[in-house]
Amino acid sequence: MTVHFPEDAASDPGAAEDAATWRPLAEAARELVDLCVMSDVDAEEVRAAQADIEAAVARLRKVRRAQTMGMEYLAAGRRRPWGNPVIGLRNPIAPPLVVHSDPSGRVESDFHCGAAYEGPPGLVHGGMVALILDQILGHAVGAAGRPGMTGTLTLVYRRGTPLGDLRAEAWVDREDGVKTWAKARMIGPQGVTCEAEGVFILPRAVRERLGLPDGN
Amino acid sequence: MTVHFPEDAASDPGAAEDAATWRPLAEAARELVDLCVMSDVDAEEVRAAQADIEAAVARLRKVRRAQTMGMEYLAAGRRRPWGNPVIGLRNPIAPPLVVHSDPSGRVESDFHCGAAYEGPPGLVHGGMVALILDQILGHAVGAAGRPGMTGTLTLVYRRGTPLGDLRAEAWVDREDGVKTWAKARMIGPQGVTCEAEGVFILPRAVRERLGLPDGN
């Protein structure tokens, strides 16, 4: 669910049916991704599993999109962020995060990072922390009506982020012309593990709607 | 290949055989991840593919590691970064990057990011750019004999990073006591898309070996 685009569900009538088809596929693939790093079966079993995956691949590649999901849905004038590597219900790379926002523009998400997200032993990869915080910073500026692409992203790592259940929070800190500053943090069982700040630049279409001048 | 730990291959007999077993599994799973976002087959075919994946999952979960790969190999006194989400040969989340270093400590990698890494339409997710640059910054400080955990990471996005063939480069900029500053950049067909700087803190064991005092 991307709560900063609430208008999409209404304008996308087949979405619920499509989600019911593709979500369980991605969920099975997420289990597979986890087992690729966590399984300890013998070589014969690995080869048999590989053959099963190749059968699935042969089925799915019978019809391939001409464009990525992002390009295709953008062209159709609507947006299904189902391919997104953090929140995408169709993307097995995504944990996926379900992001909630409140009317003030604060966003939050509780999620789980398993073994496939490991960097240092037992800890979430620092770059994965960056990926997740970048995503929810984007939700915060979107929720505040100031969507944009990341211009600058700064992360301060306070301690390792343990694998397991985690929480991410973000909010808009301030805005000035076409720039919006948002802050985020990752929270583990022992408290805040990483603090982030992002500077987002309003895209031209939004600048024009808000009557803001061009430039930085 | 993690060239900043060249001693591992020699001390890890069986690695080549294990890699020959698990690498093709992960490669098949990477194709599957891509198709989860790029396939456009009908619902019946999706359900059949899901059943194939569930068969693979049932095989692989027959024996599950008690610990993550990072924890297990750390305990065994050797390191196989095969679970790493950027370079891990067993991790379907990883493109994976193959990172090369030269004797001066410069590191570089040419790799491919497909549809599963998409953020804005047609572009690599900015957080994915951060994940990849964080990883190769770590290789740079490791290659220079100053390994460490990321303390601070700053990314400046110059333009969107198009999906497709990309290059990442990193090098050590300077060092002072327990801190090492490294820089990295992402390069697409039109040039540099993102510049990064990371500050890495030497772990205690390395400080003691180098005779450096504690603290920052």
TrEMBL record, chains A, B:
Gene3D superfamilies: Hotdog Thioesterase. InterPro entries: HotDog_dom_sf, THEM4/THEM5_acyl-CoA_thioest. Its EC number is 3.1.2.-. GO terms for molecular function: hydrolase activity. Keywords: Cytoplasm, Fatty acid metabolism, Hydrolase, Lipid metabolism. It is an enzyme of class 3 (hydrolase). This is PaaI family thioesterase. It comes from Nocardioides ginsengisoli. The lineage of its organism: Bacteria, Bacillati, Actinomycetota, Actinomycetes, Propionibacteriales.
